[in-house]
Amino acid sequence: MKNTFIILLMFLSTSISFAQKKEKDSIKVIELKEVILIGKKAAEYEKNSKSLSTIEAFLHQSSSINMIKRGAYAWEPIINNMPTERTLVTIDGMRIFGACTDKMDPITSYIEVTNLSEAVIQDGQSGSLFGNTIGGSVDLKRNKPVFGEKKLETQFHSGFETNNSQKILGSSVNFKNESFYFDLDIMSRNAENYSAANHQEVLYSQFNKLNFSTTFGFRIKEHKLLETSIIYDKATDVGYPALPMDVSLAEAFITSIKYEVVPKNSTIKNWETKIYFNTIKHVMDDTTRPNVPIHMDMPGWSETFGFYSKLKYSFEKHHFLVNLNSFYNKSLAEMTMYPNNPNENLMFMLTWPDVRTLYNGVFLEDSFTVSKNSNLTLNISLGNHLNTVSSQFGLESLQIFYPEMSDKKNRFLKSFGANYHFSKSGFHYHFGVAYSERAPSVSEGYGFYLFNSFDGFDNIGNPNLKNESAIEGSFSIGLKKEKLMIKANASYFYFYDYIIAQTDFSLSPMTIGANGVRVYSALDTATIFNTSLSFEYFVNPFFTWNLQTTYAIGKTNDNENLPFISPFSYTSSLRFKKNKFTSEIQLVGNATQSNFNAEFGEDQTPNFAILNINAGYQFKFGNTKLMLKTGIENVFDKNYSTYADWNNIPRMGRNMYVNLNYLL
Amino acid sequence: MKPYFKKLAILLIATIAFASCSKDVNETEMNELEGFTKIRELSNSTHTIELYSEKEALIVGYNEIKLRILDNSSDIFVKNAQISWNPVMHMMMMNHSCPKSTVEKVADEGNLYEGYIVFQMEENASEYWDLTIDYTIDGVDYSITSEIDVLATDKRTVNSFTGSDNVRYLVTYIESTEPKVAINDMKIGVWKMENMMSFPMVDDYTVKIDPRMPSMGNHSSPNNVNATQSNPGAFYEGKLSLTMTGYWKINLQLANADGTVLKGEEISSTVESSSIFFEIEF
C-alpha cells in the first residue's frame, strides 16, 4: 500500500476521481486531470448508479463538461463552456472528425460504454497531447490491455427505460492468457420517442444504435505488445426533435494498430506507437418530416488517417512525455434539394468542399519534481496545419464569396503552458498559465450555407480567418481530510480573434425561412470565466454527502454574452452503501439563465430542479454475478429544459430504468 | 534511271508538301468548326452556302453562326467573298428583322465566315423566318434567300419590350453557355428597334441582374455584378453568381446612361419576379 498504488478517491456521487500517484521517492505528484471510469469491469459497475448509461451521461458527471442536446441522441460535449471546435475529443489518442455539418455526430456518438474503460479529462491547454485545444480535452480510453493467467469471461448486459421504451442488449467476451488477449463487445440500443413531463410526446426523438467492437493483443516479446482494435458503430432512424432534419444513417468504422514497448528498469517508461484509420458516413434527411418547404438530403463523409508515437521517459526528477502526431482528414458534405416541380433539375451544392487537413505536430512535456511536495509541469505543442480544398466545384463555390481564395491555407499552431502543484497538510494548490492556438474548423473555414436552426441563420465559412488564440490562467485549491474533501476551481480564458459567425446584412439566405446569413469572423477579444466547487462529506461509513456547483460567464469585447455559457448549476446527492447494496438520492438543478444572448438564438431559460433516485444490488450465484441497477430519473415529472437544450426542447419527464449486468 | 528517280523524288516531296499544305488549311478549318454542326444548306445556281451553329438548330435568342460558300462548278470553297445577311420574319400583318452582326472572315487563310443573329421569336404555322445572304465575289454580286427554321427554347433568353422611353428594346442572354456553381462571366446583348429592319446596339446602358431560385424561397446569390459595356458596340459584361445547381431566374432591369430604369422591377418580398428576366437551368 505504501509503495506504488493509485488511490481512487470518490469525489463525486458516482465515479469521478483524481488519479493520485505515489512515486517511488514517495513524493506526491498530482496530475491535473479528471478520470471518469466507464468500462465494463465488475468493480466499476458497482460504482455506477446506471451502468448502461450513455457515454454522454458519463461525461456529464464532470464539472468541466456540459452537453448541447438536439434530441435524445448524440449530445455534443462542451468542455469549460467551449464547444467542439475549441476542444479535443480523442479515442485512445485517435483523431476522429464527425461527418455532419450541423454537429449532429460528435465522435462520442460513435462509441459505446462497453468500448471504453475510462475518460481522461484535461482542462484547457494542458489537454494538447494529441493536438491543439483551447478548452480542454477528453481522451476516451479503450479497455486496458491485460495479459495474465488464462481466463475467459462472458457478460450479458440488458437494460430497459420506461420513458422512451429504450431497450438495451449487449454481450461481452474477454479472454486473456500470458501472451494473448481478446475483447469482443456487441451492444444495441433501441428507443422510441421520449416524453417530457405530463406524457407530452417529443416527436422525432427515437433512435437505433448497434455497436460492435473488438480488440486483439499479442505479446511479441517480454515487454513488447501489438494490439489491433476495431469499432463499428451504426445508428439508424435517429430523430433530432430540435432540428428540422433527422438522420437515416450514422455509421463509423474506427480501426487502429498499436505497438507498445514497456521496458523494465529503464529510464524509458513507455513507448507507444499507433497508426489508425477511421471513416464516417452521416446521412441527414427530412423524408420522415411532413410539411417541409422543400425536401433535402445532406450526406457527409469524414475519413481520417493518422499516427502518433508517444514516449514517456524519466530522468532523475524529470518525467518527460514526447508525442509526435499526424493526421490527414478528408471532410466532404453535400446538399441536394428536391424541387416541388419534378421536371426541374435537382439543386445541389457542396456544403463542405472536400477539405483535406494535414496536421503534423509535436508535444513535449516535462513534469519536474521541485521539492518534496511541489511539482512543476511545462509543456509545449507545435503543429503545422494545412487545409486544401480539393474539389474544384467546392473551391469555385467558395470563390463566390472569396474571389481571391486559393485552394490551400497553411497555419502554424503553437501552445505552451506551465502548471505548478503544491500540497501540504491536506491542502492542494494548483496554479496554471498557458497560451494556446487553434485553427478554424472545416465549417468555420469552408462551410457553405450551413443552416443553424438555433439562431436561424445560414452560415458561410471564412478561409481567411486568423488562428484563434487564448491566454489561460487557472487556479484550484483543495482540502482533503479524513471525513471531508473540498475543491474549488477557477479558470479564466482571454481570447484573441475569437471565431464566431456574424451577420452580413448584404447577403440573402438560401434556406427557406432563414433570418439571414452569417459569415464566420472573429471578435477581437472575448473572455470565459469558469468556476466550480466540489464538496464531499463522509457522514459515516455508510453515508456520503456530495455537492457540486458550477458557474461561468462568457463575454464578447462589447460586453455582450457569449452563447452556450452555463448558468449557476448544482448537483447534490446523498449516497448510501452497505455491503452489496447502494442507494442514492440526487438533486440536480440550474439557476435562471440570466446571461444569454438573443442574437444567437438564446432566451432566458428558467431555473429548474429535478430529483433522481437509484438503487443497486449485487447478487451472487456460485461463480456468476448479477448486478442490478435501477432508478427513477426526474421523479416529480418536472417540465424543464436547460440552457444547452437546442431550441428549448423539453427534457425527459419521469423515467424509470433497470440495468442488468450478468457476469458468467 | 537515276534522273527518273530524282524527278520522282521531287514530285513526291512536292506532293507531300502540297498535301500537307492543304491539309493544314483543312485542319484550321476543322478546328474552326469544332463544336459546330451544319444546320442548313442554302443554294442557288452558282453556289451552296453551308450554315453552322454550335446548337442543333437555329433557336430563339443568340445564335453564333459560321458559314462557307461552295462554288458549285469548281467544288472549291470561296475565300474572298464580301458577305451581308438579313433575316426577316414574315408575320401575318408585317415583316421585321432582328439584331444581327456583320459577317466577317474567321481567318484570312481559311474559307469560313462568321457572325451572329438574335432571333426574338420562333416560327409558327403561319409565320416564318427567311434569311437573305448577299455576297460579292470578284466584283460580281450574288444573292440567296431561303426559308430557315427558328425553334423555340424552353428557357427564356430574349426579352423584347418597350421601355418607359417608348423605345422598343431587345435584351438577350449570350453567356455563360455552361453555367457553373461559381461566379460566372456573363455576357448580355442590348439592342433597340430603330425600325422594322434596323436593330442597332445600345451603348452605355446598364443591365442590372438579380438571380433567384423560385423553387427555393426565391433566394438570391451574393456578389453579382451588373452588366455594363467596356466600350461602345461591345456586348454587356457582368458577373453572375450561382450558389447551387438547378433552375435560376435572372431578373433584369434595364437602366439607361442616366441610371433611369426603363424596364424591370426590383425584387422584394412582394415582387417575386421582374417583368424582364432570363432563365437558366443546369
Protein described:
- The complex is a heterodimer of chains A (664) and B (282).
- Helices cover 4% and strands 60% of the residues of chain A.
- With 664 residues, chain A is mainly β.
- Chain A has a single domain (6-663), classed as Maltoporin, Chain A.
- In chain A, β31 and β32 (581-590) form a beta hairpin.
- The radius of gyration of chain A is 24 Å and the shape is globular.
- Chain A starts with 5 loop residues before the first strand and ends with a strand.
- Residues 1-30 of chain A have low confidence and may be disordered.
- Chain B has 282 residues and is mainly beta.
- Chain B folds into two domains: 32-151, Immunoglobulin-like (Sandwich); 158-281, Immunoglobulin-like, CATH 2.60.40.
- Helices cover 11% and strands 46% of the residues of chain B.
- In chain B, the strands form five sheets. Chain B has a five-stranded antiparallel β-sheet, with no helix packed on it. Chain B has a five-stranded antiparallel β-sheet with strand order 12-13-14-17-16, with no helix packed on it. A four-stranded antiparallel β-sheet of chain B has the order 6-5-9-10, with no helix packed on it.
- The A-B interface holds A 293-294, 335, 337, 339-341, 344-350, 393, 396-397, 399-401, 403, 448-449, 506-513 and B 180-183, 213, 215-217, 219-223, 241-247, 281-282.
Mean pLDDT of chain A: 90
Number of domains of chain A: 1
Give unreliable regions of chain B as ranges.
Answer: 15-25
The assigned CATH architecture of the largest domain in chain B is Sandwich
Order of helices and strands of chain B: HEEEEEEEEEEEEEEEEEEEE
Largest sheet of chain B: 5 strands, antiparallel
Mean pLDDT of chain B: 89
Class derived from helix and strand content of chain A = mainly beta
Assign an overall shape of chain A. Answer: globular
Please report the first level of CATH classification, the CATH class of chain A.
Mainly Beta
Uncertain residue segments of chain A: 1-30
Under CATH, the topology of the largest domain in chain B can be stated as Immunoglobulin-like
Q: Please indicate the count of domains of chain B.
A: 2
